[in-house]
Amino acid sequence: MDKIALTAGALYAIVLLRAGGTFAVGWLAGAGARRSRFAGRISSAKFQRAERAIQRWGAPVVAVSFLTVGFQTAANFLAGSMRMPLTRYLPALFVGGAAWALIYATAGIGVLEVVGRLFAEHAALGVSAVAVLLLAVCGVVVHRRRRAAVPAAESVAEES
């Protein structure tokens, strides 16, 4: 249990720094955009409505974003760039970050222990499992690249 608590505490500190930093970068980017040539677009009524909605209702989205993979950074950056008040952002950060840290600490330690036991007791099986996993990842990457290349080739052929 001490191992989980220590890991969760370390992950919590990391996620607070990372997500809070992303929020701060978003805040600075939003401030810069408001002073740039995009200021006219940002001051439109539609953008102002979206900004007010995010400021008011964005905190639950930020908290839930920690339970997703790949959406956390976008949610935190958007919350910062849309000037979500800290009184709404920080509770969402603390709750969502805690959930993220606990999930990754418990599941992460469990997976590491299983993999460690697998390698200790059956090294050949462990190496085989890692090789199969790597081949599967490579296969997915190759498949996605080929699928993305086909529409690009079709559009070039249509333009000719």
Looking at this protein, list some descriptive labels.
mainly alpha; flat
Account of the protein in words:
- By secondary structure, the chain is mainly α.
- Helices cover 88% and strands 0% of the residues.
- The protein contains six helices and no strands.
- It has helices at 2-34, 39-42, 45-65, 72-81, 86-121, 123-159.
- Helix 1 (2-34) packs across helix 4.
- The protein is flat and about 65 Å long.
- The protein starts with a helix and ends with a helix.
- The model has no long low-confidence stretch (mean pLDDT 86).
Runs with pLDDT <50, length 5+? none
**Percentage of residues in DSSP E strands:** under 5%
Helix-strand category: mainly alpha
* Major sheet description: none
How far is the first residue's CA from the last residue's CA? 65 Å
Order of helices and strands: HHHHHH
Rg = 22 Å
Q: List the total number of helices.
A: 6
Give the overall form: flat
- The overall pLDDT, averaged over residues, is 86
Helix content: over 70%
Count the beta strands: 0
In short, what is this structure?
This protein is mainly α. The protein has helices spanning 2-34, 39-42, 45-65, 72-81, 86-121, 123-159. The longest helix is centred in the C-terminal third of the chain and has 37 residues, at 123-159.
